[in-house]
Specification:
binds glutamine; single chain; 12 strands; 6 helices
Length: about 250
């Protein structure tokens, strides 16, 4: 399985690298070999990657990579249409949309994979978050994480949110929606990192990445996720104590 990690030097705040450790760790515990390719400015995009990962970053770092990422837009959109998996967190999520207008008012062009745009507000949206999402019909999951963003993301026509906000602020602090989903591509504001406290999301991503490579979707045997469940419980309780929209 090929995992392409976009801009690890620039987009890696709030321990987002931890998501990679979970993906590679859970894959290897199922006997799946993961070839991690670090993709920096000007590097070729591995068109045959099964999973693309991009983390979060401050406005300054986003501005440094935005033109390079935008140039990969058509290829990434094609890969997603062909079933490739994407996990994009916060700043990376914003730049997979059409644009991010940052706090200076500068419009950073995005890759245009997700039908959305983002505009920075004056007050940052910070704290623990709990969302309800349904990645597979009929399977509802409570997904917990931490948000810290100035951006308010507006989903455009045809966009599907990743989930509904149960506690916290989400895309814009108003709509009650969080993230965006397009096929096997997921964008979210949930840091933390996300995957250590939501192992079912990690397994969902991995199964589809394996399916992209082999044509068959594996059914993984459950792993003993006691620590993960505990982390989820703590994070969910903190989010619930925070309450909802402003
Ligand atoms: N710089 C962006 C914002 O403030 C993204 C922040 C992040 O990745 N945590 O909204």
């Amino acid at each position: 399985m090929i995992l392409a990690h976009l801009y690890p030097e620039y987009l890696n705040i709030y321990a987002d690298r931890g998501n990679l450790a979970v993906l590679t760790g859970r894959a290897r515990r199922r006997g799946i070999d993961v070839d991690v390719r670090e993709i920096g400015l000007g590097d070729a995009t591995p068109a045959d990657a099964d999973l693309f990962y991009i983390g979060g970053g401050q406005d300054r770092e986003q501005a440094l990579i935005a033109p390079d990422l935008a140039s990969r837009g058509p290829l990434l959109a094609e890969a997603v249409a062909a079933g490739a998996v994407v996990l994009a967190v916060c700043g990376g999520y914003q730049l997979l949309g059409r644009y991010y207008r940052d706090r200076t008012g500068t419009e950073q062009h995005g890759a245009g994979v997700f039908p959305l745009h983002t505009v920075a507000g004056d007050v940052r949206l910070i704290g623990d978050v709990l969302i309800e999402c349904e990645l597979d019909p009929g399977e509802r999951w409570a997904v917990a994480g931490f948000e810290n963003h100035a951006g308010r993301t507006i989903l455009e026509t045809g966009a599907i949110p990743l989930g509904r906000v149960v506690a916290g602020l989400g895309n814009d602090g108003q709509s009650g929606l969080e993230g965006c989903r397009l096929g096997n591509a997921i964008g979210t504001y949930l840091h933390g990192p996300l995957l250590p406290r939501n192992p079912q999301v990690a397994d969902w991503l991995l199964a589809r990445a394996v399916e992209h490579r082999t044509g068959e979707r594996p059914v993984f045997a459950p792993l003993p996720d006691e620590l993960e469940r505990e982390a989820h419980a703590v994070s969910s309780a903190r989010a619930r104590s925070r309450g909802g929209r402003r």
